[in-house]
Design brief:
- With 378 residues, the chain is of the alpha/beta class.
- Helix 9 links the parallel strand 6 and strand 7.
- It folds into 2 domains: 195 residues, Rossmann fold, CATH 3.40.50.2300; 143 residues, Rossmann fold (3-Layer(aba) Sandwich), CATH 3.40.50.2300.
- The chain contains 15 helices and 15 strands.
- Helix 8 packs across helix 9.
- It is elongated, with a radius of gyration of 25 Å.
- It has a 5-stranded parallel β-sheet. It has a 4-stranded parallel β-sheet with strand order 7-6-8-9, with helices on both faces.
- The protein starts with a helix and ends in a 5-residue tail after the last strand.
- The longest helix has 32 residues.
Length: 378
């Protein structure tokens, strides 16, 4: 009788062990072979298409560096929001409801990111914005991450750099648009806190071609420097107007989005512009490798959007491989714990809100037709 009981117990224990082994093996295999479905939302057409194109480049480089096993599991579903809140809502709704993605890289534009916050939070879908976050975006819910530093941090760096150069009487031209206004507000806040004076402040509508009236008011104020919160065609038209009025030799400062090919079309007009750049001043080996890959593939220097997408995909895929595709809370924890990650823009950490921080923000300038780190110039 006792032997019979022992025999039954033996087989019962053995069956339990085998079942546990099979379950673990299946789960492990599932984690290693399950499709990694990721959405990409950005401005691939429209006025901000250049930024969307750069984001796509970062994605393509990241994919090209992955091994075949990982690459075979990754499915990227791309949606164009044209930098519009309305279009972004439609894009994200489709990715969540139709494609059933758990993770989305994007949106890129701030207007689009703000419009989709509720969708991400309500569905517990993790988003990684591509552009630089405004205050509102930086403080979005726990499923939002941004591996770029906050706009406020960049403007604080720029304001301090101007005061350190003993430039304390600035005249401002800013485009009245959400992104430029965010840069403008933070610049004014920190420049005045550091002891600077705003001697002229002119707001203009995007698409304006004649800035003569604003520039004449600036000229009368006799500033020692200029802050131009604008980019692409707007910035070029402002520079043309400053040139006509003989103000182009004043020290000129702008926002990071000024770094694009449109500015280079005007040859020397933008020469000497200084701007903060969302990257670590103390660049690492990974940043150098990414810059070399980008140069070899596109014959250009990488921008922050491409580098952000490159980092976002690599970080996300690594977290999913560790946690499994369906374990969003584990993935979220992995992203929230990111510290000193050797990224394409430098050594990246995230703060308690999931927003990227760097030890020291880079300052760049346009010199001899090339965008260069200010600290690396003779």
């Amino acid at each position: 009788m006792k032997n019979t009981i022992k025999h039954k117990l033996f087989w019962l224990v053995l069956i339990v062990v085998v079942v546990v082994f099979v379950v673990v093996a299946v789960n492990k295999t599932g984690t290693q072979t399950q499709t990694i479905k990721i959405g990409l939302v950005g401005s691939f057409t429209g006025n901000a298409a250049f930024a969307g194109e750069n984001a796509q480049r970062g994605l393509d480089i990241a994919l090209s560096q992955m091994n075949k096993a990982d690459l075979s599991r990754i499915e990227i579903i791309k949606e164009d929001d044209m930098c519009s809140g309305k279009n972004s809502i439609s894009a994200v709704q489709k990715l969540i409801s139709v494609d059933h993605v758990n993770y989305i890289i994007g949106p890129l534009c701030n207007e689009a990111s703000l419009a989709t916050e509720k969708l991400f939070e309500d569905n517990q879908v993790i988003s990684m914005t591509i552009g630089l976050p405004s205050n509102n975006i930086a403080n979005m819910g726990p499923y939002h991450f941004s591996f770029s530093p906050e706009i406020e941090y960049l403007m604080k760096t720029l304001a301090k750099a101007m005061i350190d150069r003993n430039l304390k009487r600035v005249a401002i031209i800013h485009i009245v648009s959400p992104f430029q206004e965010e840069n403008y507000r933070h610049f004014v806040k920190y420049f005045t806190e550091y002891g600077g004076q705003i001697v002229a402040d002119q707001g203009e509508i995007s698409g304006t071609t004649d800035f003569k009236s604003s520039i004449l008011k600036i000229k009368q104020a006799k500033p020692d420097s200029l802050m131009l919160a604008a980019y692409t065609g707007d910035l070029n038209n402002i520079l043309k107007g400053l040139n006509v009025q003989g103000l182009l030799d004043l020290p000129k400062f702008t926002i990071h989005a000024a770094e694009n090919s449109v500015l280079l079309e005007e040859k020397t007009l933008g020469e000497g512009l200084i701007y903060p750049y969302p990257a670590d001043q103390t660049q690492n080996t990974s940043a150098k490798i990414y810059a070399d890959l980008y140069l070899a593939r596109y014959n250009a220097t990488p921008d922050p959007y491409s580098a952000n997408v490159y980092d976002s995909l690599n970080i996300l895929v690594a977290a999913i491989k560790k946690c499994g595709y369906e374990n969003k809370e584990c993935v979220r924890s992995e992203l929230a714990g990111l510290k000193n990650y050797p990224g394409a823009n430098g050594n990246l950490s995230v703060d308690e809100r999931g927003v990227g921080t760097y030890k020291e923000i880079m300052l760049k300038t346009l010199k001899n037709g090339q965008f260069q780190s200010l600290s690396h110039l003779p």
